[in-house]
Each structure stands twice: as C-alpha cells, then as structure tokens.
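Can't paste images in this forum, so I'm doing it all in text. The chain is below; anyone willing to post the predicted structure tokens underneath?
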Amino acid sequence: MKPVNLLPESQRRRAPSADGKSSYVVLGVLGVLLLMTGLYVVTANQATSRLDEAAVASAEADRLEAQVASLGAFGSFAQVKETRVASVKQMATDRFDWERLMLELARVLPAKGWLQTVEASTSGETDATAAASTTTTAGSGPSAALTGCLPHQPDVADLMLRLRRMHRAEDVSLGESVLEDQNNAPSIDTCGSYYKFDIAVTFAPALVEEAPDGQVRVPAALGGGS
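Text version of the structure:
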C-alpha cells in the first residue's frame, strides 16, 4: 500500500537538488582563484622589492666607483710624494761638504809641503790614474785621494794623523811615500828632494738627520770658529 503524505504542500520537507552541489563547486573555484590571486600579489611584491634593492645596490656601486676614481689622483700624488721624499733622503745621504774639506785640508797640510792633486768622490770610487797608480780607496762612502810633497817622512806620518782628525774621516791609508830624484829642484810637477806621498782618506756617509746648514761647526784646531 503506497503511503500518502497528508501534510500541505507548503510544509513538506524538500529533498536536496543538484543545484545545491553546483553552488559548492562555484564557491571552491572562487576560493582557489582568491588564493592564487593572493600568491600572485605576494610574489609580485617580492619581485618589485628585489628589483628596488638591485637598483639601490647598482646606484651604490656606481657611487663607490666614482669615489674611487676621484681618489685615484690622491693615490698617485701620495706615490709621487713618497718617491720624492726617498729621493731627497738619498740626496741628503750622498751630499758632502766640499768647502769644509778644502778648508780643513788647508789647515792640516804642513807649511813646508804642498798638494799636487786632489781627487774626491761621494761614491767611494776615484780615478787612480788621476792621482797615482797605487792609490786605492775602500768603502762606499765619500773619499779623497791626495798626492803631494813633504820634506821628510815624519812629516807624512804627521799629515796622516792630522787627516784622521778631519770631520767624518774614518780611515787614512798611505799608498806610497817615496823620495824622488834629489838632483831636481822641487816644483809643482815634481817633488825634487822632497818625499812624494800618495794618501787616500775615506769619510763616513752623511746622516739624514745631520744639519745641512753648517750647525756642526768646524773644530777650532782646523780653522773653525769658537
């Protein structure tokens, strides 16, 4: 027997239809689209931020390169300064007070003798043929090769002691002291009856801190002031 529903049509329970399921599907699709849109916005924002950071880094790199280029001239100037300072120090070390040397030679040479040749060098190398074939100089400091005439051998020894007292003199060596032909009269070219001496004097190199303006006085015994 078939059951009969006696309730009015308006109060009867309605069975779910297929349209309800389709609405859930639509809502799901909309949720997925919303999620994808959010992911796109986040990714786009990150990409934009990274592009901005790259632009800032590139601008900073350009600024630093420009700064380095502007400072390159100062670096070159500093190098030139160091080179010039080194050159000046080298020149100060190689300098020699030739005026003082001649003054002292005039003071230490005995009255009865004279010099025939004087050869000096700041490098310690002298031309032996200009002074005497037996003259040799040692060391790398300034040096002087002297040849001249004195009446007696003790005068030559006394001259060597006096030369040793000269300013910055380190070593005094005797090349020879010989008696020339006594028949010839003494002259500028020959010693005659005098002893011809050949002496090499080696001086200490100049110090960079040494005063170059004559503050170190010549000793009074060699003609300097008090």
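Confidence is low (pLDDT under 50) at residues 128-138. Residues 21-94 form one domain.
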